[in-house]
Amino acid sequence: MHPITEDHRPVALTGDRPTGPLHLGHYVGTLKNRLAFQRTHRLYILIADNQGLTDHASDPDRIRRNIFEVAFDYFAVGIDPAETTICLQSALPALSELTLLYLNYVTVARLERNPTIKDEIQSRGFGRDIPAGFLCYPVAQAADITGVKATVVPVGEDQAPLIEQTNEIVRRLCRQAGREVLPEAKALVPRVGRLPGVDGLAKMSKSRGNAIQLSASRDEIKQAVRRMYTDPDHLSVSDAGRVEGNVVFQYLDAFDDDTETVDDLKRRYRQGGLGDAIVKARLESVLESLIGPIRERRAEIARRPADVRDIVASGTARARTITEATLEEVREALGLYRLA
Ligand code: TRP
């Protein structure tokens, strides 16, 4: 553990809605970056249960059940609680208070223009009945990020507009306060930002049923790879096949470190004479060698739920001190009254 006074590493924060176990899309989009960051940065990982409620208001039970599923996933992929602070959003009331203040420094029109929000409104079928909490969750996310004064946010590319939104709020607030109370943050998006679903449609997501979970069994991996979208015109082995838009090759690009072999497979596939079955068999073994150890570690950790709870509780206690200090600073900078 690095004592806070001597810890000059930049602060990074990221988070997840606990709506279900994490999947390969999360791994490529952000978990991998988090592993790289936990030594070089003071990393906070927020289990965003309040945010989860913004699109699952009618299923609070699901949010409650998944808080620790997500925590198990963190430890299973190698997040180290001695380096990283894992905390629970709903147990950090200062974040809600910051949200309440920030809501006054953003317009409804701006929130409605946010491209991520627009996409999500569509995919969730809200139509015109958008929950106000949902429309405003980017403001709460600004509170998450600024609450610990993070300057780096490792996220998938779909989250970039939310960091933009955060920085607009930060600038507006600093202008009002007449000084730089809060730092701006930078989104850190990985090279392969968005992993397509196994159906080849849009991104991997649990609600679309096109995801491979980090806890997937050998058999689930096999089933998922078997139904993976390839090239619909590649009817017999001797036909020339298309690599572009072929999900199996997109996954090999994302997960197979042996790029030489992958390039060779691509060449032979394009030429004709290489069947889907062979490429899929390779992907299956690549995925098993990634997921196998994660699955084992997860099973071990899931046997010690009380330890995991303690880790989340102590991370949250640490984050509480910091977020409360930030709230005080912001209120002070705005010159708000304090009934002491
Ligand atoms: N919106 C993120 C997601 O859906 C989760 C999240 C909540 C988050 N608070 C955050 C991400 C703060 C980065 C920073 O995955």
Chain-wise SSE layout:
Blueprint: E1 11-16, H1 24-40, E2 42-47, H2 49-53, H3 60-77, E3 85-88, H4 93-102, H5 108-113, H6 115-123, H7 132-135, H8 137-147, E4 152-154, H9 160-177, E5 186-188, H10 218-226, H11 247-255, H12 259-271, H13 276-302, H14 305-333
Parallel strand pairs: 1-2, 2-3, 4-5
Helix pairs in contact: 3-13, 4-8, 4-14, 8-9, 10-13, 11-13
How would you portray this structure in words?
The protein is mostly helical and 340 residues long. Helices cover 54% and strands 6% of the residues. Helix 3 (60-77) crosses helix 13. The structure holds tryptophan. The site of tryptophan has 14 residues, from strand 1 and helix 8.
**What is the helix tally?**
14
**Relative strand content:** 5-15%
Q: Reading side by side through the largest sheet, how are the strands ordered?
A: 1-2-3
Spatial separation of the terminal alpha carbons: 34 Å
H and E order:
EHEHHEHHHHHEHEHHHHH
Unique bound compounds:
tryptophan
In total, how many beta strands?
5
Shape: globular
Contiguous runs where pLDDT drops below 50 for at least 5 residues: none
Give the mean pLDDT. 94
Radius of gyration: 22 Å
- What structural class results from the helix and strand content? mainly alpha
